[in-house]
Design brief:
single chain; alpha+beta; 3-stranded antiparallel β-sheet; 4 helices; globular
């Protein structure tokens, strides 16, 4: 199976999991400050999303998904969005990176919320509710923390295929979602680069 087919299958499995149910613990109400070990040798130049005043450094050996393949993935996500009702959160992919050998991936997306979710607090509550009623996995861990002034909710999702870190945070205009998806068999190989990348997330004033 080709690299892109493996990646699309992995990301679609991740999306499909959002249609199943499980019971999880409530996240803690205390938002702690978090620091990450950032090894710049594991990172390359930052991706800058100008209108969101957002920058994030990509793991060094991870490559942008070619436009034609990104279009295929975007089409699948749009089909997934269309299958939901008007009260569902919509995913709009901005950038996709893949490690050619390990198949680890990063998907950076903007989120669109229903009009009823008129505040950031309501958007976070809706997102967490959708996650907790949508993930069928052996483990879902939810943590809230602040990093350099950014309030981040992290969802760690474990399946047989992968360990995923889904980060939710408010940028300049939009709520953003960063999905780091690491195949289980290369978790130890890629986790330091992922931690460094998460630690590099920055929103300018």
């Amino acid at each position: 199976m080709s690299q892109i087919r493996i990646f699309i299958l992995l990301f679609c499995i991740f999306l499909t999991n959002c249609g199943k149910t499980t019971k999880q613990k409530e996240p803690t109400s205390t938002v702690e400050r978090m620091t990450f070990t950032v090894n710049r040798q594991l990172l390359k130049d930052s991706l800058n999303i100008i209108d969101e005043k957002l920058s994030v450094s990509i793991p060094k050996s991870w490559k942008p998904l070619p436009d034609s393949l990104k279009s295929s993935l975007t089409s699948k996500v749009e089909t997934f969005n269309a299958s939901n009702d008007s009260l569902a959160i919509q995913l709009n992919i901005h950038s996709v990176y893949v490690q050619p050998d390990s198949k680890a991936s990063l998907v950076i997306s903007r989120l669109s919320f229903p009009k009823n979710d008129s505040t950031e607090s309501l958007q976070r509550k809706h997102y967490t509710k959708q996650m907790k009623t949508g993930i069928d996995s052996t483990s879902l861990g939810i943590a809230e923390f602040r990093k350099d002034g950014i309030f981040i909710t992290q969802y760690m999702i474990r399946t047989q295929q992968s360990v995923s870190f889904k980060l939710l945070f408010k940028a300049h205009k939009s709520m953003m979602q960063c999905d780091y998806i690491i195949p289980t068999n290369v978790f130890q190989q890629e986790i330091r680069a992922v931690e460094s990348s998460i630690g590099s997330i920055f929103i300018s004033q």
